[in-house]
Amino acid sequence: MLTTKLMGPLIDFYPDSNKMSFIGIPYAFHEAGFGFGLILLILVAYITDYSLILMIKAGHLSGRFSYQGIMEAAFGTPGYALLGVLQFFYPFIAMVSYNVVVGDTMTKVIVRLTDIDPENVFAKREVIVLIATIFITVPLCLYRDVAKLAKISFFSLVCIAFILISILLRIGTLNKIVPEHPHSWRFFNSDIIPAIGIMAFAFMCHHNTFLIYSSIAEASQKKWETVTHASIFTSLVVSCLFGIAGYSTFKAYSQGDLLENYCWDDDLMNFSRVLFSIQILLTYPIECFVTREVIENSILSKKEPDEPISERIHYAITLSIIVTTYLISMTTDCLGVVLELNGVLAAVPLAYVLPALCYLKLEEGTIFEKKKTAALGVAVFGLVVAVLGVVFLFMDMDQVNQCSHGRVMDYCLENANGTTGTNGTINRN
Fold first, then answer.
1. What is the model's pLDDT at position 326?
2. With the C-alpha atoms ordered 284, 289, 292, 298, is the resulting torsion angle positive or negative?
3. Which of 6, 17, 138, 402 is most buried (CB neighbours < 10 A)?
4. Which residues pair with 426 in a beta bridge?
């Protein structure tokens, strides 16, 4: 039973697993097929739920209640090092995706508010992200302690709720003008692995598992399972709502960034874009803090473990991370590709492979014993998705820049020109 004492950890847990990836769920449905995509989403949620439970079981088996601790207990220094690499790339690629989102969403808002030409330099995503980076991201990231920024869970919930309501309100309006597409409402499509990558990223919350566990009063395996079930179920419901509502509205035209599908002069969705961008800009420094910590703890050698690094090194590392993520984010405006990349390279190993392997290693008996069958299945699932995901992603690299950014969807111009294009978009470049 979910008591009042468990509501705090639940609220902290939920937004972490759904900060931004819900806007990619309709695109995942398009890639896997609407019907099969919905089945996949439920399956990924179920496997995520079980893997989170495995992590705490591994903690009890090893007596080490941290992700690094269970990896080191199970696989020694190599396991600790592997986790460090993955924990670096996950927030690092996430920061790239945050820049992509801000560039995609705020361009529409700037054009709408200022009525400047979309070709104006201040309407370019490169400039907008640069301005946000200089005046917002850099000052926040330079703080050594971002604990206050971590308290944005409630604000995240408010943003998610408002955006979801906005999307639901727009279903009826846009359904009338979005053109039909021959690939809409397919039950099954072939891009299953990339879709799983996006979904895994949406449910990813394993790096904070032990932090949340320690916040539970009189924590136990049973209480943890209650919080996990409630959190993942809530995330699943919200993800389903976003996925179904978004796909029902745009069907085969669904973009990796769902907000890209909405018209530039839609004030309700523009306000949603502003809220979403604020949420992203507040989340970026937290991810930067994690990335910086990995570099400091894994690469830099300090005489004393608790000794802070010098201000000069702190600034150098922070600015290097910010500049690098900015430059990478300027190479693509395809959020779907970035979500897939982070999903298969980092989220899937962190969420499924490593927790399952830790449990298999720490639990007594051979890996083929009945009590380990489910964990073995999770590990195999994660390995297959990760390997095939990387292969497919590099095979489809020619599609990296085939996104709608910088274009106005045809149905948004319907009233102006009286026609609707067959491809759903008109290039304004």
1. 96
2. negative
3. 17
4. 408
Q: Alpha-carbon distance 32 to 198, whole Å?
A: 11
- On whether the CB atoms of residues 404 and 108 are closer than 8 A, the answer is no
Sign of CA dihedral 166, 172, 176, 182: positive
Pick the residue with more confidence: 229 or 2?
229
Output the CA–CA distances (angstroms, integers) from residue 132 to 66, 282, 359, 394, in the order listed: 34, 11, 43, 31
Single-letter code of the amino acid located at 410:
D
Domain boundaries, position 182 = 4-427
Q: Are 18 and 231 in contact (CB under 8 A)?
A: no
Q: What is the pLDDT of residue 255?
A: 87
Read off the CATH number of the domain in which 182 is found.
1.10.4160
The dihedral sign for the CA sequence 127, 129, 134, 135: positive
Contact between residue 6 and residue 226 where contact means Cβ atoms under 8 Å apart: yes
**Terminal CA-CA length for the chain:** 56
Residue 143: CB atoms within 10 Å: 15
> 93: exposed, middle or buried (C-beta count within 10 Å: 0-12, 13-18, 19+)?
buried
Coarse DSSP helix, strand, coil percentages of the chain, rounded to the nearest 5 percent: 75, 0, 25
Mean pLDDT of the chain: 85
Region 307-328 average pLDDT: 91
CA distance 92 to 67: 18
Q: Which of 148-162, 350-364, 394-408 has the lowest mean pLDDT?
A: 394-408
Mean of the pLDDT values across residues 165-181? 89
Q: In this structure, what token pair is assigned to residue 72? A: 């080191």
Phi and psi, residue 285, nearest 5°: -60, -30
The answer to whether the predicted template modeling score (pTM) of the entire model surpasses 0.90 is no
* Domains: count for the chain: 1
Give the residue carrying structure tokens 């990995």.
Answer: 294
Q: Which two tokens stand for residue 154?
A: 């409630």
Q: What's the chain's length in residues?
A: 429
Task: Label the pairing between strands 425-427 and 407-409.
Answer: antiparallel
